Amino acid sequence: xxxISSVLESREQHFTEMKELLETQQFTLGGNWEYDGxxxxxxxxxxxxxxxxxxxxxxAGHIDNEEADDEATIKVGTPYVLKHLYREGNDPEASxxxxxxxxxxxxSPSNPDAEVESQWxxxxxxxxxxxxxxxxx
Length: 137
What we know:
Helix content is 18%, strand content 24%. It is an alpha+beta fold. Strands 1, 2, 3, 4, 5, 6 and 7 form a seven-stranded antiparallel sheet that branches. The longest helix has 15 residues, at 118-132. It is globular. The relative contact order is 0.24. The model is unreliable at 91-112 (pLDDT under 50).
């Protein structure tokens, strides 16, 4: 994980406005969001191993991805770039479910904090710069 300084740090913004603006830049609400915080994530590579993440915390209200008129206010944390390396092929820890005998196809990263090469840091900074241009300073 490599932190990247940004003018967005500590910015307070209406959650829905931030989400809509970031979606125009290929960000999605990260799957790890909670009612009191989360992150906006953008893959930087085709394999979805390198990510630019913009974390946030809720400072007023709460977020609910299903509500169109969500009134939460968020505060942006320090953006960072991270790289997840996944096992190639079948996950040796995949579990077999008794009901339906389905395999768990989702595997955790073999190295969730892999070294991030400079090209990805540069790409993350470029993407973050494009995002910053969407917000008045």
